[in-house]
Predict the 3D structure of the following.
Amino acid sequence: MSDNTETSRQLLEIAHKTYRSEVLEELSGSKRYIGAMVANAMDIAARALERDDPAKLLEGLTEKTASSGSAELKALAAAIRAGHISAATHPELRDILLAYVCAKLEISNPRYLSKRQA
Amino acid sequence: MAHAARPRTLDPDNLKPLESWLAATIGASRVALGPVELLSGGAIGENWRLGARVEGGAHAGTHDWVLRTDAPSGVALSHQKNQEFACLEAAHAAGVTVPDPIAQSDDRDLIGAPFMVTGFASGIAQGRKITRDPEVANFGEALAERLGAELAKIHSVTPPRPQLDFMGPPPDNPARHQVEGLRRHLDTDIEEPHPALEYILAWLEENAPAASAIVLCHSDYRTGNYMVDDGRLTAILDWEFAHWGDRHEDVGWFCAKCWRFGANEREAGGIGSRAAFYRGYDGVSSTPLDPKIVPYWEVMAAARWAIVALLQGERHSSGKEESLELLLTGMMAPEMEFDALMDIAALDGAKDPSRV
């Protein structure tokens, strides 16, 4: 993790803690709703900094799409649409995509995942 | 860019033009409005509650009405107010519990935006409040059955209907037609690629059920879009997505996990049992539901809501409308992708246990 990323992580963490303890509790009505959204956004950003890019889980598939770099995800989506990558060609496809979606949920809403898997 | 400035809408200090227009439109000698109150909600358009005293004509008397304006900017997939009003009229004529359709105008000069006026329906619509009401254990089953019966009445409207021509011709295969439409959104409106959604849409295309009788689908029939007062249904709202389709589409949307507001054990909209909802439907419809097809449409519901959520997020990301709420809505898409993939795993496993 670079110094910049570590500083960003620390800044976000203390901003978040301060916001929750000093600001959010003071809000009511529609401001409380907006305040909760702000806290949620900071939560998501903090988790995104901590975790690997979920797309890394697709690397085994994207290598087979004859593309590279940022275009990999797009090429994979297109290959699935075209039927070049399917459950027939890659029996593990659904499980890999499920792991990818779970990794995205670990960032955006881990509670959703824990509730569904309970 | 901050929130886009809204066009001028109803001015409570200048109601004369609206009063005159209403009187002429509904055949009254005079309409007097007041009190006028801006209702909460209406994140897209605005909802105004209107007291109305009508002299002469079929509407003579004192009324409680609601004026709803169009969105300031177009919302993907939705009809304009005049089209929504035509759907409301068709549903009203079919005996569906909807706010009474009173009048509609596309004239932006009257109040600054297209609008429609309907009867007022009492109660609340918020899905979270309804599904978390401790009384839902008492009223939920009867409400689910009633909503099943109401849905069957909506589906009694079938093409052709000249007033609903704006919906276009009925699709040959509603499921494949939806997959095409959703892919179009991914291609033209959503910047980021979504391989999991592509997989889900490929599955939906491959497993599309044979075309069934085409009916009027509400297409957003779910908890959150009907009003409940003291546990009883008072109105079905939000007709802006109605289209010709397969009756099971609305059933799948109503029962999908994403519209249970966390009350997963109550499979019909987070309020009651699937059995009660189906029983209500089959008690009214001349064509019974096929429960085997509904899980397919629940996968479709998850895919569609995921893509609608992404479209909302895109409104922020594209710079069209700066909004934390829109961005967070877009980030909900993996929740629906997860539900769809899990449902697909279960459905594939039921067909072929080796594919679990």
User: Anything to note?
Assistant: The mean pLDDT of chain A is 89. The interface with chain B takes residues 34, 37-38, 40-41, 44, 58, 61, 73-74, 76-78, 80-81, 83, 86-87, 93-94, 97-98, 100-102, 104-105, 108-109, 112-113, 115-116 of chain A (CB under 8 Å). Chain A is about 70% helix and 0% strand.
